[in-house]
Write a structure and sequence with these properties.
This protein is of the alpha+beta class. It has 4 domains: about 100 residues; about 80 residues, no CATH class; about 110 residues, Immunoglobulin-like (Sandwich), CATH 2.60.40.3450; about 120 residues, Double Stranded RNA Binding Domain. It contains 10 helices and 21 strands. Strands 16, 17, 18, 19, 20 and 21 form a 6-stranded mixed beta sheet that branches. A 5-stranded mixed beta sheet has the order 7-15-14-9-11, with no helix packed on it. A 3-stranded antiparallel beta sheet has the order 1-3-2. α3 crosses α4, α5 runs antiparallel to α6 and α9 runs parallel beside α10. The longest helix has about 30 residues.
Length: about 450
């Protein structure tokens, strides 16, 4: 062996000794540890299937495994009562309680990890003593806050500030979200109660004493236009006392329009709701006005969400009869250089728009829109006794209240092929009529873009 080869072999062996040896697979992967003082969670993630986030997935799986060791001891009567109020079955409630336990984990620590060629493993643990300490601390914080909010709600109600009382009770209920699936007991006026049920009951009792009344039960409107008649609503407490500064939700449950979704009552317990525009062509639409309680979209606990959704909330509705815009159509259709004696496109357009509740008038001064249709067919080629005609057409819509052109479209060289030019032209007009039916959704969309 030459001196040069000896040097290379020496360098290779020395480098190999410097490389760190792969850590052997720990025993906790195959033999799940058990410890009387700790909850333990062990899990893995496939590196090949999750190359970017296998660390995160392994951690989430391990904490889920850890949480499964925590027993949640809740009485069947409490589970059944929550199920009854939320509209869920008992087993669904139990699943949500366990899921919320996983979401609330704090104080866990990473004991070890191991990375193989295709897998990544993690080992987490949580001291049982620390878990109980954190749990009791969190429950105490919720208990103190909830009891304080209940006292403030009672004081507000005694002072005839019903809107504020409702706000305090709503905060008390939503503030229990993190521990809502587990009963939290407290002393209320020398009586031990389960706060979860007690707050819900107090909130529902207050809501039962509130009435929301729409003074206008039915109104007329035109699609795409502002509703001239404001919707008036009044809110009263049980003995007809007006409730001021109460937030109300305003939503379409049928149809649609532009409206401020949250309004407040004034000192007389009334409010006016302005519908800026009707955007749906549905002839019968329903607007619901209801007391605002809690925005469920801001909640993450499915059990609490379902519970709030099952509250009986005071509300009233307004029926809106919607008519489409009144339309004056001016159609100029040229058939092979001659004015068409029988119009093709105008009837198609009227039929398509009438399906969306549009009205038609022969008096331009009475119209909301003017629609201009211009169409002209012309001869094309004649090949093997088959005649081709082409048609160009355009459509323009003017909003007569603003003078603005709100829609414009044009098509060129729409083809018709038949045994002579006359029939080919008619075929081209027929094909153009099909396109008119297809552009009606675009015309309706133009309504939504109008100011």
């Amino acid at each position: 062996m030459t001196a040069k080869m000896n040097v290379l072999l020496y360098v290779f062996l020395a480098g190999a000794q410097l490389l760190p040896a792969q850590k052997s697979q720990p025993t906790w992967i195959t033999e799940h540890p058990v410890h009387p003082d700790f909850y333990i969670g062990i899990a893995m993630a496939d590196k090949e299937n999750n190359p970017q986030n296998y660390h995160k997935i392994a951690k989430e799986n391990a904490l889920m495994n850890l949480a499964s060791e925590i027993s949640v001891d809740i009485s069947g009567s409490f589970i059944h009562e929550l199920a009854e109020k939320s509209g869920m079955i008992d087993e669904e409630v139990r699943q949500e309680v366990h899921a919320s336990t996983r979401a609330q984990l704090e104080g866990y620590e990473l004991v070890d990890n191991w990375e193989g060629d295709n897998s990544y493993w993690v080992y987490y643990r949580l001291s049982k003593e620390k878990y109980e300490t954190i749990k009791k601390r969190n429950e105490q914080n919720i208990r103190e806050l909830t009891v304080d909010l209940l006292k403030q709600a009672k004081t507000a109600q005694q002072n005839n500030n019903i809107a504020q009382a409702l706000q305090f009770l709503s905060k008390a209920l939503s503030g229990m979200e993190s521990r809502f699936g587990q009963p939290i007991k407290a002393q209320i006026e020398d009586t031990e109660v389960i706060l979860n049920n007690y707050v819900f009951f107090e909130l529902q009792k207050l809501l039962n004493d509130i009435s929301v009344t729409a003074r206008t039960k039915q109104i007329k409107a035109t699609m795409g236009q502002r509703v001239q008649q404001p919707v008036q609503a009044k809110v009263n407490y049980k003995d007809n006392r007006e409730i001021n500064n109460l937030p109300l939700n305003v939503t379409f449950i049928r149809g649609g329009g532009e409206v401020v979704n949250t309004v407040y009552t004034n000192a007389n317990g009334t409010t006016g709701i302005n519908i800026q525009k009707i955007t749906d062509s549905e002839p019968l639409q329903i607007l619901v006005i209801s007391a605002f309680v809690i925005d469920v979209d801001n909640l993450t606990n499915p059990l609490l969400k379902r519970l709030i959704e099952n509250l009986t909330i005071p509300q009233d509705r307004v029926i809106i009869e919607v008519a489409g815009p009144s339309v004056y159509i001016e159609s100029q259709e040229m058939h092979l250089g001659q004015a068409a004696t029988l119009l093709y496109l105008e009837p198609k357009l009227k039929n398509a728009l009438s399906k969306h509740n549009f009205n038609f008038t022969e008096d331009l001064s009475q119209a909301d829109w003017q629609i201009k249709v211009q169409a002209e067919s012309y001869e094309g080629a004649n090949l093997y006794d088959m005649y081709t005609a082409f048609l160009d057409f355009s459509i323009s819509i003017i909003d007569l209240k603003s003078g603005r052109e709100i829609y414009k479209n044009s098509y060129s060289k729409i083809k018709g092929v038949q045994l002579d030019y006359e029939k080919a032209s008619k075929k081209a007009f027929k094909n153009a009529g099909e396109k008119i039916e297809n552009i009606v959704p675009d015309i309706l969309a133009s309504l939504e873009k109008m100011n």
